[in-house]
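Appendix B. Raw example, untouched.
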Amino acid sequence: MTNAFTKLQAKRRSIYNLGKNVKEDKQMLVNLIEEAIEQSPSAFNSQTVRAVITFGEDSDKVWDIVLAELRKVVKDDAAFAKTEAKVNSFKAFGTILYFTETATVKQLENDFPSYAANFAGWAEQALGGAQQAVWEALSVQGLGASLQHYNPLIDEAIAKAFDIPETWQLRAEMPFGSVDAPAGEKDVMPAEKRFKVFGA
């Protein structure tokens, strides 16, 4: 069984062959991304998700920072050449940097001590919901994206380059752009290994 929503979900795939052939207006995309995040749920309506949206040279700068930081830890030239090719493939039309506002998390931990152990996890849930919403919103526009995680390796350099508040913790990087090659088939775990249903 499928409906309009599950069809929408199926459009959201990890696209690794991204390009810069995007016709949409940048401000329209900014509005789309911001609204997708604003409409995403968060525990206690805490709204802990933060985002930095970059285009063009600023987007490329994110991946130049990734390469510079990786070069410090990957000493083998042959290994780094493979890594460099992969990272350069993320230089698409834009990149979204996702953060958690840790000051809000800490404030909630103080205000609601009975739930204190849960707020960091709930912030991650909010982040995941926002990321999926943005990803699907981009896919409706015919754009592709993937979700990358080079944090905490790049945290300090990203914070300096984009004037990030100290309380924003980098959690993921999402390059997006035109779909220059579609994703392959998606393997799905058998339902009986993943779900339990009672009373149906």
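End of appendix B.
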